[in-house]
UniProtKB/TrEMBL annotation:
The keyword Magnesium does not apply. Residues 24-189 form the Band domain. This is Prohibitin family protein. It is a single-pass membrane protein. It comes from Croceivirga thetidis. It is found in: Membrane. PANTHER family: PROHIBITIN, PROHIBITIN 1. The chain crosses the membrane at residues 7-27. Keywords: Membrane, Transmembrane, Transmembrane helix. Pfam families: Band_7. InterPro entries: Band_7, Band_7/SPFH_dom_sf, Prohibitin.
């Protein structure tokens, strides 16, 4: 009985030590995350193997695991850039991105956990300055919004692709011009719209006048052709046909007494 305390104390110490070691060695990688293993005595960051996936992992207590979110993320950026004529333009944009999973170790080793601040955001700013500098404020305000967005995306992607970052989309959410420039552009657009409406009405009126002229000309041509075709002989034949049809009426007694001045028969009697 006297020996139990001497055996129990080391056992308790060992159990406590094991609990500490396991707690230091156990790593749980959450959903949408991956871990970069750092070996203190084994060459530092592990880059030749895939990162640690989701779930429970045991690592040596002297090593460390850096956890990264590898699902798609979004970052917002507000930039002041210059247009082609030197005016300051404010652009509000956001980027959809995620680290390249297979290169997560190299991303951590070369760029660190601050890769968004060190690589992605500076790349977006640089691309925005380059793209916006090719356009006027009028183009930025109206017709070229989609083109600007696509160009910023392409130029940013070309930069970050080699930096182990996957860029999925750039969204230009707002373009803010100086108030005086914006008012000037809006007034110009209103004047252009009014001019287009006037031109439309003018063209419509011209087309209606042309339609009426063509219709009148057609009627005149038809009357002229008809008049030219109605000879005296044709008119006399038509008159005879009409007289004969009338003579067949049951309400009239027909007596032909010679002819009239125009050579047509005369019909007498109405009983």
């Amino acid at each position: 009985m006297d020996r139990l305390p001497k055996i129990a104390l080391p056992a308790v110490f060992i159990i406590i030590l094991l609990i500490i070691l396991i707690s230091k060695s156990a790593v749980t990688i959450g959903s949408g995350e991956a871990g970069v293993l750092y070996k203190t005595f084994g060459g530092g960051v592990v880059t030749e193997k895939p990162p640690l996936g989701e779930g429970f992992h045991l690592v040596a207590p002297w090593n460390k695991v850096y956890v990264y979110e590898v699902r798609q993320q979004e970052v917002f950026e507000q930039m002041k850039v210059l247009s082609s004529n030197g005016l300051e333009i404010q652009i509000d944009a956001s980027a959809w991105f995620q680290p390249k999973y297979e290169n997560l170790g190299r991303l951590h080793q070369e760029k660190s956990e601050q890769y968004k601040e060190r690589i992605l955001l500076p790349a977006i700013r640089s691309a925005a300055r380059s793209v916006v500098g090719r356009y006027t404020p009028e183009q930025l305000y109206s017709s070229k919004r989609d083109a600007i967005q696509n160009e910023i995306f392409e130029e940013t992607k070309a930069i970050v692709d080699e930096q182990y970052i996957q860029l999925n989309e750039i969204l230009v959410r707002d373009v803010t011009l100086p108030p005086t420039i914006r008012e000037s552009i809006e007034n110009k657009l209103k004047q252009e719209q009014a001019s287009l409406e006037y031109e439309f009405k003018l063209v419509t009126a011209q087309k209606e006048a042309e339609r009426q002229r063509i219709e009148a000309q057609g009627k005149a041509d038809a009357n002229r052709i008809l008049s030219a075709s109605l000879t005296d002989k044709i008119l006399q034949d038509k008159g005879i046909e009409a007289t004969l049809e009338l003579s067949k009426s049951p309400n009239a007694k027909v007596v032909v007494v010679g002819s009239g001045d125009d050579g047509l028969p005369l019909i007498l009697g109405n009983n």
